[in-house]
Write a structure and sequence with these properties.
By secondary structure, this protein is α/β, with parallel strands linked by helices. Helix content is 22%, strand content 27%. Helix 10 links the parallel strand 20 and strand 21.
Length: 754
């Protein structure tokens, strides 16, 4: 009798969640946040209890007849990282829902874009040595990657040397047959569910992006990797013996917010240790940002979350994924170039890059050189489709920008009969060049080089040029440098938190690809070189996995602190890390600096933060109690617990907003550090104060007598007279605690206001 009753309830439940195809056209997917249901006899709710509670918010008009069981109204029900659901609703449905007790808020689902060999060695990770060996290559740690899926039969996902997953693993593999193994332990498809696509397809990667990011984080060792004969070596991820759990949430059209939340929710149930998301949208308040909400739910369960900062640089305030409980990652170069050099008829040479390095291009022959901008209007300068003529047999100078991408411009030159292309940057991209698989001989050069080439063309009636292909060149002393495309702070959602947190390799990164790009092999060991903060994010995800394996008792905040306070701020040449202008990069470009994995494994001190510590910070953002409840999944009363300024959060960096009024002219904050180094250790203060800002710290010496001991220090920032009045918008400095063995560094960013 009970079984019949339960089946009847299930039948009615499924009916009320269904809509006809005709009704589907009038619906939009909303993310709906609600309060937790009142527990009956227990403080914990089962998944079934939550889903029954969510069902009560659907308007009664959704009760359907038995022939309308085609498509569900509730497309995702969240159980772990959020209290709420994604549902297909009309505006009228939403208005009715808003009147129901327990409703908090709802917003239309956002569609978020993706942020799109040698890097382990560049980061100091060497097989059989040091931190890599000491961390056991990430064995036993599970990295969950939310992306476009995976190409599971690639050798990068071999489980050679990888042990079985830990007993806590509860995930599943949706590939048919015995595709998953000890490396690729789980694979699930969430993509398209909230936008009405059929569920049940395996999470096969049709785009390549997810395969690339997954192998960057934790790909196994694959010897003989190369692309177009370049960047030869052993391809390997940051944590080569860690486990991978794949969650397909994206396609070529983007990543639906509801699907992302559902995948994060499932990953918590499955038992992942690290979440890697190379995706994100524009800056939003955290309570309306699905990634921020999901990430908070994850860190509450001890899961580290790494996200890309975005590819909208170099303009300021373009960062995404700005929540302080997320590690936000910018992109920088490695010391490898795939060199293509433009040589002009006046003997001048300008180094550039190109992945395509043809063997049949005769670099000894000087060819006629033409500026595409002299052939017509501005679209000609950009070499947009259909704009070129009279370029047969010539080398064409094209400018970045316009309607076409970098490779598209070469396609237009080739269509018009051009022999080769010199691609010059726009002013905003400066000296940041990229190695792309161009369709014809190409050298991608800097804006400065482009101007000089234009000047040469104008100086003679018969300009000529050739391109010299020099292959893979290692040892660029400017590396790491910040990529022009890497999004910048200050944070819009929370200016008092410095973003990005860190930079990692994200330019011309060789990693696994589902298909052959160069048609050079019939092997399954296929690779591609692409760039973006999408590439830097999984580097940090893998490094976080190594740290988790080496220090299983560290919280997500402690791992983040270790990464930030040990970061490098100098390049291989011993000078300050530069940006696309070849001038010193500011803190809104590099955050704490460039990741140094070996140093992060032994940081000396950490700035630890527990999930509960973020609540007063959220109150300080002037969020309402209900808005904070969306993030924390608990009842909050800011009037009782109080609020703190953003900069008071126990964060490994400082972002100070200084104005002329008394309140902002002098600001006092505290920080608490935990000793994770030697028991008996002494740290002395070292300050580099920002311009026209006094920094006073008390005490100036920290003496520890045991491991895990904490000490709190006070830091006072006082703006000097005239600070910010000289037209300078930002200032920067560092606060360092220095011992015999450690240098614990926190960047100080100052925003001068009115």
């Amino acid at each position: 009798m009970q079984i019949v009753y339960l089946l009847s309830l299930l039948f009615m439940f499924s009916l009320s969640l269904a809509v006809t195809d005709e009704e589907q056209n009038d619906l939009q997917t909303y993310i709906v946040w609600v309060e937790k249901p009142v527990a009956q006899g227990s403080s914990a709710q089962s998944h079934e209890d939550l889903e029954s509670w969510y069902h009560t918010f659907l308007p009664e008009s959704t009760i359907a007849t038995s022939n309308q069981l085609s498509k569900p109204r509730i497309v995702h029900a969240y159980h772990n990282v959020a209290t709420g659901f994604a549902a297909k609703l009309t505006p009228e449905d939403l208005k009715a829902m808003e009147k129901k007790p327990g409703f908090v808020s709802a917003h239309p689902e956002a569609i978020l874009p993706l942020h799109t060999t040698h890097s382990p060695n560049f980061l100091g990770l060497n097989q059989g040595l040091g931190f890599w060996k000491g961390s056991n290559y990430g064995k036993g740690v599970i990295i969950g990657v939310l992306d476009t899926g995976v190409s599971p039969d690639h050798p990068s996902f071999s489980d050679a040397g990888v042990p079985p997953p830990p007993a806590k693993w509860k995930g599943k593999c949706e590939f048919n047959g015995r595709v998953c193994n000890n490396k690729l332990i789980g694979a699930r498809n969430f993509n398209g569910i909230s936008t009405g696509q059929p569920a049940g397809d395996p999470p096969l990667d049709q785009e390549g992006h997810g395969t690339h990011t997954s192998s960057t984080a934790a790909g196994n060792f694959v010897k003989g990797a190369a692309l177009f004969g370049m960047a030869k070596g052993t391809a390997v991820g940051m944590a080569p013996h860690a486990h991978l759990a794949i969650y397909r949430v994206c396609s070529a059209v983007g990543c639906a917010e509801g699907d992302i939340l559902a995948a994060m929710d499932a990953a918590v149930d499955d038992g992942v240790d690290v979440l890697s998301l190379s995706l994100g949208g524009f800056s939003r308040p955290f309570y309306s940002d699905g990634v921020a909400v999901g990430a908070f739910g994850a860190i509450q369960r001890g899961i580290f979350v790494s996200c890309s900062v975005g590819n909208s640089g170099p303009s300021y305030s373009t960062s995404s994924n700005e929540a302080p409980w997320i590690l936000t990652v910018g992109a920088s170069t490695i010391d490898r170039n795939i060199r293509a050099t433009a040589r002009l008829g006046n003997k001048k040479v300008y180094n550039g890059e190109s992945l395509f390095q043809p063997n049949n291009f005769n670099s000894k022959i000087m060819l006629p050189l033409v500026d595409a901008g002299s052939l017509g209007n501005q679209t000609s300068a950009f070499c947009d489709a259909g704009t070129l003529k009279n370029v047969k047999g010539k080398i064409v100078l094209c400018e970045r920008g316009g309607a076409g991408g970098r490779i598209d411009k070469g396609a237009e030159v080739k269509r018009a009969g051009g022999a080769a292309m010199i691609l010059m940057n726009q002013r905003i991209d400066g000296f940041s060049t990229l190695a792309d698989p161009h369709l014809l001989p190409t050298a991608h050069v800097s804006y400065d080089a482009g101007l000089k080439i234009k000047s040469y063309i104008k100086s003679t009636t018969k300009p000529t040029a050739t391109i010299l292909f020099k292959g893979t060149v290692i040892g660029d002393k400017h590396a790491p440098s910040v990529a022009s495309f890497s999004s910048r702070g200050p944070s819009t959602a929370s200016p008092g938190i410095l973003k990005p947190d860190i930079t990692g390799p994200g330019v011309s990164i060789l990693a696994t690809w589902p298909v052959s790009v160069d048609n050079a092999t019939k092997s399954k060991a296929t690779f591609n070189i692409i760039s973006g903060t999408s590439m830097s994010c999984p580097h940090l995800s893998g490094i976080a996995a190594l740290l988790k394996g080496s220090h299983p008792d560290w919280s997500p905040a402690a791992i983040k602190s270790a990464i930030m306070t040990t970061a490098d701020v100098h390049n291989l040449g011993g000078k300050s890390i530069v940006d696309q202008t070849l001038k010193a990069a500011d803190l809104f470009a590099i955050g704490a600096g460039h990741v140094n994995p070996s140093k992060a494994n032994d940081p000396g001190l950490v700035y630890d933060t527990q999930p509960k510590n973020y609540i007063q910070y959220l109150c300080g953002l002037n969020y309402t109690d209900k808005q904070i409840q969306i993030i924390t999944q608990q009842t909050v009363d800011c009037s009782k617990i109080g609020a703190i300024p953003e900069a008071q959060l126990n964060y490994p960096s400082f972002s100070i907003i200084v104005g002329s009024n008394k309140k902002t002219k002098s600001q006092l904050y505290t920080r608490t550090v935990k000793n994770v180094g030697q028991a008996n250790s002494t740290y002395k203060l070292d300050i580099l104060a920002p311009n026209k800002v006094d920094v006073n710290v008390s005490p100036e010496v920290l003496k520890f007598t045991k491991v895990k001991q904490t000490i709190t220090y006070r830091v006072k920032f006082v703006a000097q007279e005239g600070a910010g009045k000289d037209g300078v918008l930002f200032g920067q400095g560092y606060l360092r605690w220095v011992s015999d063995k450690h240098n614990v560094s926190s960047p100080i960013a100052v925003i001068f206001g009115s």
